Amino acid sequence: MRLGSRLRGEFPRGWWRSARWWIAGIRELAVSTTAAVATVAFVGEMVRAVRHRDEPRALAGLSGTFEGYVGGLLINGAGLVVLVGMAIEDGPPVALAALLAGWCLLNIAVNAVVFVVVARSRIRQSATWAELDFVEQHVPKYGRPPETIEEYRAQKFQE
Asked: What pTM was computed for the model?
């Protein structure tokens, strides 16, 4: 896929005045940030992922991106390391350190469960995930009609 096609997919004509484009972008950014920093808010999504662990279409529809959950693992792991380092250096009071450590551990647990469930599904059902990735990459966004063969094919797969 050429650079022009990718840019046209992400920035359709008139994107700067399209409320749908801005709202979708802001929502995606907010959900990914929440998945990375406050994953505890997605406990319901974690339960849904475990219940539907053998259904790639259900897993693909989880709130937050897979990258957001992986980022959450890394961020909260780093936060836990920093917290331990601060505790060694006589940093925060014990109650605050315990509260922050609990927060990081809960976030790590939720992120790890979602990561393992999605990774297991991607390994075991790679053909279905390849189709879902193709559709996600090529389907026309923001209500724009399909223009290329791949976009028509992705729209057909989506239906």
From this structure: 0.74
